[in-house]
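Hey,
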Amino acid sequence: MTTAPFVSPSLPRLYSARASPVPKSSARSGAWVAFRARPYGPSLHLRSPVMAAAGVGGNGSAVASEDSKVSSRLGEVKRVTKETNVHVKINLDGTGVAICSTGIPFLDHMLDQLASHGLFDVYVKATGDTHIDDHHSNEDIALAIGTALLQALGDRKGINRFGHFTAPLDEAAVEVILDLSGRPHLSCGLSIPTARVGTYDTQLVEHFFQSLVNTSGMTLHIRQLMGNNSHHIIEATFKAFARALRQATEYDLRRHGTIPSSKGVLSRS
């Protein structure tokens, strides 16, 4: 099937009809990158003809009618301070492409999990004062991702809103429950046994999620069920978060595009 190229006015050159994921080496070299996307113009159809026949959307959720379409769920944030320079782009209806160069190798690995298991397209380019430590970059990247998520969600019409997933990784298992409520709250029950994984300070895991929660307006509960390997615990956390967030951002067929709140509004304020 031949499709026309899609160019978002707010995200120039982010998507290309025939683009393939660019190796991470290209992203880290500073080259401009393209994600594979659904090229349908200013509004994205969230399903292909095959998906339409099956009655499901492009993100795996059910859809109400043949002609259903929603505005592109994209977010882009540039955050520049004296400590960091961060550029984030996210597509909630992506295919799981991650192009991340944060200056923190372990965080790159975790953002890969967010994209792959959430089926989000995630682009993060960051530089910062990592010669001091990873704290400022870790925090500002999470703040930018949360803000991009807030942009991409828009008025949150028709979404499930709630997500709940438990992910195992060998001996570790972590449960994540979240609500895209507009009210920021974090409860983090992780017991990570070592101070570092590689060069990454494991205290920064909770700080990453607190920063993301603050700007996205998300209620997030993280509970470690078991585990004694630090890498496994953290990775299971990001995988469970990705799947719970995917569930919450997908569309609910029975809601028919209404806002999932008895108040009739979900907002950050």
